[in-house]
Every structure is written in C-alpha cells, then in structure tokens.
C-alpha cells in the first residue's frame, strides 16, 4: 500500500506541478503553446518584513513598487529586490498646502489618514491615492506629504451619489482620469486643480429594434421594473506614455469584444484589433448554465503595458494573464488559479517591473513575479525589431520562435512580411498562408501575379492569338467546305 | 458517338440554358414533351453536393473562412439531399392541396434543373477565386451572387410553370412550402428525440434487470 502511494504520488506530481499552456489558433481552437512567462519569485508581508492586509493596487515607478492597502490603509514602497523601503499610515500636510488652507480660513492641520483606498497612481512630482472611503483623491509629494485633496466634484452626477473613486491615472499635464463607483457615464476627467472637466470614453448603449418596440408599448410601471440599460462600467485605467488611456471594463451582456479599450485624448477607442480575434481575454467560454463551472467572458480588472505597445490584461475570473501586442495579436497566455505560491487566486492588480510582471493577489496578500521565458523574450524581441522596422532581424528571431513553438502563427506572418519586403513573393505567400494573414497575402499575391504576367507576357499573348487564329481558321474552313465564301455574302 | 455527344450536350447544357432564358416555353416542353430527364436532375443535384465540398476545400485562400480540417463530405452530401428532399416533399404536399398540376417527379426534376446556374458558374468561379486579390474578390462574389439569383429565378419560374400558377399563387406556394419544411423539420426532431428517449428507457430497464438478476 505504501509503495502504491509513493508510486501514485510520483505519477501525479508532475501533473500537479506542470501547467498546460495554451493559445488560440486562427480558427479559435485552443492549441498548445510554449509558456511566454514563468513564475520567478514572490513576495508578501512576511518576506518584506511587514504585514499586508488587503492590498488593492500596485504601481511601479522608477523601479520602486508602490502598493496601496485598503485593509490597514497603508501605502507601501518596496524596492526592486522586494525589500520594504517604507510604509506610511498618516500623511502630514505640506507647507504649501498649509498656506492655501490658511487662506481658506482653516486653522487645524491634522495629519491625513486613508479610509479603504483602492487606487494608486505615481508620477514624477506626485503620488495620487483614490481614498474611496473618505470620498476623495489625495495628492502626495514624494516625501509623502499631502499637497492637495480633491473631494468636491462639481457635476450633477454627484448631487445624488457620493464621489467614490476606485482607480486613478494621471496624464502628462497632470489631468486626472478617475474610475468612480456607480458612475456609468465613463471615465471622469479632472483638471489639475480638481475641477470636473468631462466624461471620456463613454461606452455606448445600443438597443435592438425589438427592444425599442417593446419599450414603446410598455407602461411607465413596466419600464420602471425593467432592468436598467447601463453602459458597462470601467474597472481600471492606465495612462500610457503617449497620454492614451488603456482601459478595461466589465463585459456587457452582448458585447465582450469591447472590454479592452485604448482611449485617445478625444475620448475615442483606438485599440487596434488586427489579430485573429479581438483582444478580450478568453475567446471560447461556456455561457452560463450552472454554478459548477466558471462561465462567461473574462472579467478583466487591470492592464499593464511594457515596451513596443505590448500590454497584458489580468482576468480575475480565471486568474489568467493575456499579453497582446500593439496590433491586437494575442501573444501568450499565462497565470494559473491556485493556492500554491506560483499561482494566484484573486488577482487585483498588475504592473510591469522592467520585463518582469507583478501580479497582486488580494486573497493571498502576495505579489507573484513572472519573468519572460526564452520563448516570451524572443517574441518580445521580434516585436521590438518589427516595430523599429528592422524586418530582417525580426524574421530571424521569428524563425527562432518557431523552433520553440511551431504552432505560433503570428511568427509566420512576421517572416512573410520580411519576404514580401525582399521581393520573394512566393515564399511570402507560403508564410502568409500559414499565418492566415489575408491582407498581406493579397498584397504579395498581386505582386507575384504581376511578376508572372510580365515575365510570360509573350507566351500569354501568343497563346491567345493562337487559339483565336485556330478558331477563326476552322470557321473559315467549315464555311468553305459548306460551299460558302467569306469574301462576299451570297 | 457524335449523336450521343450531341444528345449529352442538349440534355445537360442546351436545354437547361433554354429553360433559364425561356422559362415558359422551356418548362412547357419540359412537361409536355418529357424533355426533362430525371437522370439529368439527379446528376445536377449530385454535382451541387460535390460543388459544396469542392468550394469548401478549394475556394481561394483570401475568401475561404472555413477550417479545412472540419470538412465532412458525408455531412455536406447529406445536408444537400436533406434540403432537396424537404423542399420537394414540402412543395409537393402544398401544391397538391393548392391544385397544382405538377407531379412529384416533375418537382424533383425541376429542382434539379434549377441548380444548373450554380453548377455552371460555380465551378469556374471557385477556380478563379484562387487567382484574385482581395480587392478583386468582388468579381467572385458577383459571379456567385449571379449564380444563386438565377437559381432562385429558375426555381420560381419552375414552380410557376409546373403547377400552372399565377404570380401571387406562386409566392404563396413558396411561403407555404417554407412553412411545410419547418413543420417537417419539427416533426423530424420530435420523432428522433422520442425514439432516442425510448431507446434510452429500454436500455435502462435492461441494465436494471441485468444488475438485479
């Protein structure tokens, strides 16, 4: 019996430890893939020499990891070796803010404390904290002194409900973009001094004709009982270095393809969706039937970007990380649900520390660090070369990627583009065929066909003349045989 | 040999073409002088079934969205046969009640002949689609659209002429045919579901008895 136990352990252990990595093929099938990222290390309260209670958000700025905790209302700063630099519970009022407060007639200057803060943003000259429980945004300087507090948002929306900021991001000119609770109009844009500017990136609501008809014949009471048609709520916002906002939102009933957005300063979603499938986390999922399986589209809670427009989203529902490139191609899928130290069960926040990816697990109060594997590093490198326009180098790297993962269809397109540029259309066609890139296949095919037509022009015209001549010749022959003539009508 | 070839040419090309462009005279000859042949209709139907398989596999890369690994020839053939059978039986049941003059055989033949444009245009178009770029695919779509529209036209004129109907009555016959097809499908599904449940029931009783004794 003991022997049996040992043997069964030996057999099942690799299964327990190994994870099957997958990706989606062009046809939407789940296919095996090499892992793009692997577990590197983790850190939590114990390893950093403190306690985390309910961490909510992490931000990496200048190789320092900032973390906000809604349980013990603390702001942590952790260095890139995952050692605690400092932690802060109360925040003194800075001298400049004291002056402004004095001019407003205040006399008492107590230190501020947070009440369940959920969001954090760190910029060069300030740290912004979405202090949800106190219904305000607190702006700190880098010596953790309060330099401003925004709590009075002058918009009709907040006559009825409290301003409860959840997530915050700040652009280059210090305008704040805030996701607030129970606000469906979009992302709040606040001016540098906290004045309400506008809502941006509104998710439109659309009714189909049948619903419009149903609503038109309903009474007021029936309409009141009907479920409200609300635009989807945003879950997180992250500003990229070009002042475009990466935003994730909750999936609507009929639209899961829109849950990742890249909102430009005009408020329009400009995310490229040129991949095989729109960026939306998992493409195949079960539609709700029972309580025993996780169903429905991915529920994305955070987004992080790194070089060359590569970004990763965090799916809280299935504890997965989806990495996309700037074109919307799904690069690799990582992350596992579980209680082991290399897995996470309730991811809430995501940040890139150079090439490493930090995932914050609220339940386990742990940050899991992922590092790129050979495969992932090569993919990123190839994309880097491709973005810089060095197609030859990119193609070289893509070849190496294909050695590591033959199923990787995006790589074929990368090589195809190189051949297309080199004028080797036949090879380009072959690779675009493998990579299912219609647009470039068409381009390559056009060039290929033109080449063939040009080089064989003589034969083609010769053939046409020959056939036409033969047909006419036979016609004349049969006319003569019948006793007619082609020279004059009879 | 020459007469055979000529006959073949007439049966499979000239006469269907004549019907397509002269539906009234064509279907009159089709019905009255028995120029329509069941063998031709069956070959057209099988060619149509084969066309579906052919286009599944060989349609140009730029327009073919289908996964070649998912091709199931039997399923394609079966779906064509089922569709034709549903239509002909539905049409026959409806037109019998609506004083249609057509016999069942004639309906089958007419349906087969109606597939002539798809077969004629479809095969070359599918081959052509391999030599077109993305922008030129409009030509392919135009060709296929033309094929399907003329098939619909032939089917419509066929029903009109075979049963000696007027315009309104033909349209009504078509609508009722669709209803009849839906009803048949419903009964078919019901029947299979019940059979399945019955078999399951018998099997479970057998299993129960087996386990007890």
UniProtKB/TrEMBL annotation, chain A:
InterPro entries: 6-blade_b-propeller_TolB-like, TPR-like_helical_dom_sf, TPR_rpt. SMART domains: TPR. This is NHL repeat-containing protein. It comes from Mariniplasma anaerobium. The lineage of its organism: Bacteria, Bacillati, Mycoplasmatota, Mollicutes, Acholeplasmatales.
From TrEMBL, chain B:
Keywords: Membrane, Transmembrane, Transmembrane helix. It is a multi-pass membrane protein. Transmembrane segments: none annotated. InterPro entries: Yip1_dom (IPR006977). GO terms for cellular component: membrane. It is found in: Membrane. Residues 18-186 form the Yip1 domain. Its main location: membrane. This is Yip1 domain-containing protein. It comes from Mariniplasma anaerobium.
